[in-house]
Give the backbone structure.
Amino acid sequence: MQENLHQLMTNRIGVEQVTNGLSQITKSEYYLHALKHPQVNARHSTDLVFDHHFALLFKKYEPLILMQLNSETTIVNNPTAQDQNSANDLSANGYKVTTRESPNAVIDQYKAFIRSQDEAIESYKKEIGALVKLNADYKVRISS
């Protein structure tokens, strides 16, 4: 999917055209109005182009999108280097970056985490049982 989108941008549209279009969004009167006013106030359906939530998300992620587009044009044939460089660039700029992992690897991580949680729960149950027994013994000592 990502490769198809990249090929479409590079072969048909052009990365410069896409980045120019994205930068034009922030200059739009509709975008600025949606960014400033959370309430939708459109007199006609043609006046409603962007909503407030989209404007906030676009403002937050526009640099990230542009950086990704620019990095894809400079690094073409080495996807692992591209992922590593993109991850380094993004994390340096304050964006949270996670590595691409297979769903099975993520599931295995969760299974291991759940196993460790189960082991901790079992040890806590044993500890609580011992403390309850100790408490009962002390109550017997106090009452006699």
Q: What stands out?
A: The helical segments are 2-13, 15-25, 29-36, 52-74, 79-92, 103-143. Residues 2-92 form one domain.
